[in-house]
C-alpha cells in the first residue's frame, strides 16, 4: 500500500510506469501475508517489484513501449516473472522503456517520456529507463530490465542504482520480447548490491523453455558477498580511459580506483584492442536480428491491425507503418539491408567475425585479471531531447557497455558519486563468463 501511494504521489512527474496494477498487487500482497503467517517466508515474499514492459505477463497488457502492441494481453508469464512470483514477490506494474528496447534514453517509447528523478529535465537512461527511474524515485523495491547493449547498466548508472547484466545464458529469455536474440539478457536493477544478489539468484538458472539458457548451478550469490577485494586483480582497459571522457566521470573513476587500491586490490592496465569496432559490429548484428525478430508483427496474430487496409498485403504494410515508431523502422531497414543477398558477407558475416575477436580480447584480459573496471557511460545523463536529432550520437553513448554483450559475459553498474551538476555517475565491473559472484563481491 505504501508503495502504491508513493507511485500515486510521484508518477505525474517521473512517468516510470506504462501500466500500474494496484488490484492485482494488493491481491498478491495479501497472498504473501498469508504465506508469512504460515511461516513460509522467503527473502522475496511480499517484496514489491516492477517489470520492464518487455516481459510478457499473464492477463496484463504488455506493450514493449510500442503502439504495435498497445492492445496485447499475453496468455502466459515468462520464466523470470514466474520465478519471482513463485518466490512471493508482488508485481506493481509494467515499466516504461524505449520501443522494443531500441534506444539509450527511453525517449523512443510510444507512451511517455520517463524523467530522471535526480533532475527531471534529464533522461533516466535506456532502454530500461522506467526500471531505473522507479528505483531512484522509490516506486519499487527492485525491478527487472533487459540489456542488449547496455540497457540495464546505463540507466542504472544514470539513476544512481545498481544494475546487473548476467552472462548470456544465465537467465532464461522465455517470455521476454525479443530484440536481438544473441545479445538479450534479463537482469535486476536495485538500490544496493545485496538486493541485486537476491534478485539474480531468484531469476537465474536453466530453463528448458530457452535453448540458450545454460545448465550450470546457480551459486548462493548472497553468501559470498563479504569476501572483500584484498588481492583481487582489477584490470583497467586502456581503450576505455580515452581523451574526451567527461571530467566528472574521470574523477569518479580515479577515486574508485584509489579506494580499491587502499582496500588491497591490485590494479593493472590491460588492453581490449578491438574496442573501436564494437559499436559498428553491434549495430550490424543487433539490427539484423531485430529485423528478423520483428517480422512477426504483421497485424494478423496479435497487436495493432490497421483499419485503413484493403487486402492482405496492404494490411501487413499499413499495420507495420502505423504501429512502429521511427527508430524501430530505421533499425528494421538497416538490418534488412545487412542481411540482403550480396551484402550478407560484407556486413553480417564480417560483423560476426569481429564479434569473435572482441570476445577473445576479453578472454585474454581475464588471463591476467579477475575483473575489469570501466566507466558505464562517457557522460552523466544528458538532457531530454538533446540527442534525438542525431541517432549516431545516441548510439555512441553505449560505447562502454556494448562490448560486454558482444562478448556474452557479465557486467554491472554501481553508483560511484555525483557530477558537479548533481547527477549520478556509474562504475562498471565486468567479470568472466558466469563470474557474477566475483563482480557482485567487488561491487559490495
Ligand atoms: N542503446 C542500445 C540500443 O539502442 C542498447 C539497447 C539495449 O540494451 N536494449 O540498441
Automatic annotation (TrEMBL):
Q: Which UniProt keywords apply?
A: ATP-binding, Ligase, Nucleotide-binding, Protein biosynthesis, Transferase
Span of domain Amidase: 1-440
What Gene Ontology molecular function terms does this protein carry? ATP binding; glutaminyl-tRNA synthase (glutamine-hydrolyzing) activity; transferase activity
One of the protein's GO biological processes: translation
Gene3D superfamilies from the UniProt entry? Amidase signature (AS) domain
Would you tell me the Gene Ontology cellular component terms?
A: glutamyl-tRNA(Gln) amidotransferase complex
Active site at 52, 127, 151
The source's domain of life comes to: Bacteria
Catalyses which reaction? L-glutamyl-tRNA(Gln) + L-glutamine + ATP + H2O = L-glutaminyl-tRNA(Gln) + L-glutamate + ADP + phosphate + H(+)
Alphabetized InterPro entries for the sequence: Amidase, Amidase_CS, Amidase_dom, AS_sf, GatA
Q: EC number(s)?
A: 6.3.5.7
What PANTHER family is this protein classified in?
GLUTAMYL-TRNA(GLN) AMIDOTRANSFERASE SUBUNIT A, TRANSAMIDASE
As for what it does, the entry says: Allows the formation of correctly charged Gln-tRNA(Gln) through the transamidation of misacylated Glu-tRNA(Gln) in organisms which lack glutaminyl-tRNA synthetase. The reaction takes place in the presence of glutamine and ATP through an activated gamma-phospho-Glu-tRNA(Gln).
Subunit text:
Heterotrimer of A, B and C subunits.
Q: Which family does it belong to?
A: Belongs to the amidase family. GatA subfamily.
Q: What name appears for this protein in its UniProt entry? A: Glutamyl-tRNA(Gln) amidotransferase subunit A
Point out the gene that encodes the protein: gatA
